[in-house]
From TrEMBL, chains A, B:
InterPro entries: Kynureninase, PyrdxlP-dep_Trfase, PyrdxlP-dep_Trfase_major, PyrdxlP-dep_Trfase_small. It is an enzyme of class 3 (hydrolase). Belongs to the kynureninase family. It comes from Streptomyces radiopugnans. Catalyzes the cleavage of L-kynurenine (L-Kyn) and L-3-hydroxykynurenine (L-3OHKyn) into anthranilic acid (AA) and 3-hydroxyanthranilic acid (3-OHAA), respectively. The modification N6-(pyridoxal phosphate)lysine is found at K247. This is Kynureninase.
Amino acid sequence: MSDATENTPEDASADASASTALREEAAKLDAADGLAGRREAFVLEDEKGERVVYLDGNSLGALPRSVPARVADVVEREWGRLRIRSWTESGWWTAPERVGDLIAPIVGAAPGRIVAGDSTSVNVLKAVVAAIRMAREDNPARTDLLVDATTFPTDGYIAASAARLTGAAVRAIPAEGIPGSVGPRTAAVLVNHVDYRTGELHDLPGITAAAHEAGAYTVWDLCHSAGALPVGLDEHGVDLAVGCTYKYLNGGPGAPAYLYVRRGLQPRFDSPLPGWHSHADPFGMSHEYEPADGAQRGRVGTPDILSMLALEEALKVWDGVDMAAVRAKSLALTDFFLRCVGSYVPAGRVESVTPAEHARRGSQIALRCADAGEVMAELVARGVVGDFRRPDVLRFGFTPLYTSFADAELAARVLGEVLAERDA
Amino acid sequence: MSDATENTPEDASADASASTALREEAAKLDAADGLAGRREAFVLEDEKGERVVYLDGNSLGALPRSVPARVADVVEREWGRLRIRSWTESGWWTAPERVGDLIAPIVGAAPGRIVAGDSTSVNVLKAVVAAIRMAREDNPARTDLLVDATTFPTDGYIAASAARLTGAAVRAIPAEGIPGSVGPRTAAVLVNHVDYRTGELHDLPGITAAAHEAGAYTVWDLCHSAGALPVGLDEHGVDLAVGCTYKYLNGGPGAPAYLYVRRGLQPRFDSPLPGWHSHADPFGMSHEYEPADGAQRGRVGTPDILSMLALEEALKVWDGVDMAAVRAKSLALTDFFLRCVGSYVPAGRVESVTPAEHARRGSQIALRCADAGEVMAELVARGVVGDFRRPDVLRFGFTPLYTSFADAELAARVLGEVLAERDA
């Protein structure tokens, strides 16, 4: 990749020296990285076998190398040869709870609280309707559903639908304002743990405690935090949570989402989607619905087995991973990336909209950039893959299991080159 | 496989002669079968490579031989190498409508009416809530949801949930009684096209016409008819329909379900699950929900891509298949199987609960048998795979694309042997 060409020789020399220092620093950081070995578990090349700097794992996680063989076995042997027998012999029936128990340690939950299946949107409906129902049962005057104002759109749409279906009212409140807004009329709050656009980390313990203080239920959307930082669902007493598995959990495109219900609330979980897989005796084929106990109560219909078992295999890369180490690396990566951007990109050309404060930062950096769409297209063409969010945001996701410090340095350097060429 | 041993020599000789005649007849029927060639498209052996008589395709369809290579490519190249680029470059984004258009001719729909995704249960909720909303919009006095009394349980549970969420009331009515029960208070009717247990085919044209005459909307569950017989959704003016794809459509375990909305109703389709994939401008990330036009409006969140594309590949076996020929073969198979059962099984030992009349028969035969659970276990052990539905039903599904008349004869013969041994 070329250096910028419009600088004076002195500038170029200073630039080269700064670049050399950052590359050396990246190499040292990578050498000292306790998670560096996990990178080998993933496919990170493109279709021509060339290295890609993949900073879009917050949209679609990379392929764990062990997944193709597992999927092939599921298709060819379990489906192809055993067919219907696999529901029992290959453990298909119990896969949603088994996968839930693999997700559990990543988000700080004990076994038996999480079930995998359906999409995030569908799980938002289950969780929000169930939360409103519990609040109403406590006190019929609880009619408000508070939703963080910068929510990922689908959560807002589904929240509005849940409110319409239950006679509740949605109020959009900035996440930091929720503790001051919860009150005796609040049924539930729905908050994105990390903002999909800015990467801002919302205060899960604080908001949860404030909601509980007011007698309301919490529903957390973990799509942009699970696998990137410790969540502590059990520890912080979160009531319900949902998340996808195709971002930091690397489950594959459209992999099943999941639903967490706090242990003490499981017997009260009253789903708007009471399908036969959540029945206490599914094969009794009774016309009376009797919900199963535990996490199974969150199931609906027949789960997507191919995707479910691909996800199960993908989750094996988390075995033995310490989420505190993941968080430490994530923050180090985003800090380092911001320093590299500061060095390679002229001041004012891009502006980070991700909080600088560690306590408020997820695992991505979002840079506001006037020509973000064209800049991202050019970055992708040069093997640096982030994504573009309208109207003007460059989004770079840092996935601690496979992003290296060298990736971060190279991405910033190429960004600097692209911007220099565009501005020349 | 042994013959029954308790017969006299004369009986055994008569039995052997009847058996020879039936086997010869099966061979002739197979030789004359225009669909016989499709059988080669499926894997029908067990894990040891041995022939299986697979009569459970009405529960989980067999694996089409071309699916494993397609799935491997999706996993290894589209996900593994292209990653996020595949949403556009590999056509992931448009797969739900593309797959819907492949299902369309099988159920008698024009392109643009069907979208694939989510489970059948989730699609029942979408369809029933939308139907009730349309009826209410026509006339707020329409408060009743009629559900066929022998419905597959999940449809009943979800119907009850839909009614609870919309303030409607469920009435369970035998399917044949629905035309006489619809009236000015009826909002919608939810009917299983083919009864999952008995295999009874319900009168889709007649019930739909009666509902329309009364001003009500129809929701048909096609799980046990799609791919087994012509459905004629457009022709009969069905309003909404749902179905799974893992039975006669061979999409794989838990493959995405689908939703049909009649063309004229698409602009009125008001989903309880308005996820971002059904937004008119999904990447606009607007906080205001504006539904997309057409089939896309039935989408919710990110679809399960691995399962979706396995299904897309599996549907290729339908290319050029005439549904009238499928129906003719299905009826011939079930007729022949019943004759073979009549020949091999002592009178009264089992009783068919599937209607003898062709117009009322789907593509399975359900035999009431006191010791059905143990009998089916023994059949499976001998390579004849049907299934058992509590308390006393042996279910045999006939999938015209890969079931042969020889399969039907052998299944009945082995059933006769098993019963003879048990009764010896």
